[in-house]
Amino acid sequence: MKTAVLGTGTVGRTIAPRLAELGHIVTVGTRDPEATLARTEPDAMGNAPFGAWAAESPGITLAGFADAAAGADLIVNATNGGASLDVLAQAGAENLDGTIILDIANPLDFSKGMPPTLLVKDTDSLGEQIQRSYPQTRVVKSLNTLNADLMAHPDRISDPGTLFVSGNDTDAKDTVTALLKEFGHRDVIDLGDITTARGTEMLLPVWLRLWGALGTPDFNFKIVR
Amino acid sequence: MKTAVLGTGTVGRTIAPRLAELGHIVTVGTRDPEATLARTEPDAMGNAPFGAWAAESPGITLAGFADAAAGADLIVNATNGGASLDVLAQAGAENLDGTIILDIANPLDFSKGMPPTLLVKDTDSLGEQIQRSYPQTRVVKSLNTLNADLMAHPDRISDPGTLFVSGNDTDAKDTVTALLKEFGHRDVIDLGDITTARGTEMLLPVWLRLWGALGTPDFNFKIVR
Q1: I need a surface site. Which of A7, A31, A94, A167 has the fewest CB within 10 A?
Q2: B71-100 as b/e, with b when 16 or more CB fall inside 10 Å?
Q3: Distance between CA atoms of B225 and A147, rounded to whole angstroms?
Q4: Which residues form the Pyrroline-5-carboxylate reductase catalytic N-terminal domain (chains A, B) (predicted)?
Q5: Between A157, A209, A223, which is nearest B225 by CB?
């Protein structure tokens, strides 16, 4: 597939090379490609400058959000959840219409300290906000319930656990589910329409506390039944 | 242990006989024991009248909330989450002080239709509200993340999954964890202090959607790692 990964942080840098490795065409979207490539210092999260990272990541092209999104079959929203709607606006509705948006972001609010709280919850979700803002796209919420390394490489743990898909379009969920299985995921539960993203976004608070309790982000939820 | 189970609904009626079966002394607490025993019709959830049920449940005594709580080593809050603080007030601080309160309720709000939303979330939890209201008790939040039948009989599914405990007192969490293992649970994760109950209470929205997607409440979360 022709894919765009919006976001140059840890999540984008983990998903993009995995898509390339699996044979998909990948363009990473950023606000200002020249500025992104001009950076020589690690970012706030300690990630290497994008240019240095990209030089070691074959098959990854960098472009502005709009250019990355244009013509993509599937767009991965790997941006900070608080910035996602702004980023999608920059990508432009004309470049989003007709595509599948795989929304893997969480609407986290770090402004009140740690652990972060959720910007929306229970009566709305980021997935729904994106679907409402771009009704001509088919939004599928998934992958937001586990660490980036496990998203892309579920075989890091012996039982990779369960993933969830939420979305209004069955074909789009089937496409995403097939992609998740290419990644190595085995158990994918279709929760229903995009409103069910409220449930998976609300997993983040317990995920954050489990990270603290277990001392590692290498864990996942599995639904035993 | 001398235990009290507050609440005569499905959850109380599942936990109480399991405690009795395991050799614990059990008193079920209700608002008005005479009125509870006088009922001859099924309740709103379709449960048999309490008296008919109790007659078939050896070892279960019914008492008012205060009498049930008095002298108990461990009190199980098996009431509707929206009514829990009112019920505990009826039990009386003098009867609660010094005990462990095992809070298995969820603060669900059914007033806005289905699925229910949460009365508090993310910045507070029912577990914290109880701990703040009764600082002389030791509140442990647990068991609120699965169906009543699986709480008491985890062997209904081949892998019973994971339970979580949240609380400020390590001894109280150890007592509860030992009790959960008597029930048949195997994997119990100590998430930390009672504020971590925010995480497990916020599991309910995805639990409700999983129930819809799977068509059965016989499932549980397992943390694979």
Answers
A1: A94
A2: ebebbbbbbbbbebbebbebbeeebbeebb
A3: 12
A4: 3-107
A5: A157
As a residue count, chain B comes to 225
Residues forming a β-bridge with A4: A27, A75
A155 CB within 8 Å of a chain B CB: no
Distance CA A119, CA A109 (A): 6
Residue B162 to residue A183: CA distance in whole angstroms: 26
Interface residue A192 vs chain B (CB under 8 A): yes
Mean pLDDT of A14-24: 97
Residue B211 — very low, low, confident or very high, per pLDDT cuts 50/70/90? very high
Class of domain A2-214: alpha beta
B190: three-class secondary structure by DSSP: strand
- Give the three-state DSSP class for B86: helix
Beta-carbon contacts below 8 Å between A and B: 119
Q: Is A183 helix (H, G, I), strand (E, B) or coil?
A: helix
Q: Å from A154 to nearest chain B CA?
A: 11
ipTM of the complex: 0.96
CA dist B165 and B80 (Å) reads: 20
User: Chain A residue closest to B218 (CA)?
Assistant: A225
Closest CB to B191: pick one of A190, A210, A225. Answer: A210
- Dist CA A171 CA B69 (whole Å): 55
Q: Which residue of B has its CA nearest to A161?
A: B224
Instruction: Tell me the average pLDDT across A127-152.
Output: 98
Structural domain boundaries in chain B: 2-214
* B184 has a pLDDT exceeding 90: yes
C-beta atoms of A202 and B205 within 8 A: yes
CB atoms within 10 A of CB A23: 9
pLDDT, tens digit, for every residue of A153-170? 999 999 999 999 999 999
Per-residue b/e over A192-221, b at no fewer than 16 CB within 10 Å?
bbbbbbbbbbbbbbbbbbbeebeeebebbb
Please name the amino acid found at residue B196.
T
Between chains, do A213 and B190 touch, taking CB under 8 Å as contact? Answer: yes
pLDDT single digits (tens) B27-68? 999 999 999 999 999 988 888 999 999 988 888 999 999 999
Query: From CA B57, how far away is CA A59, in angstroms rounded?
Result: 67
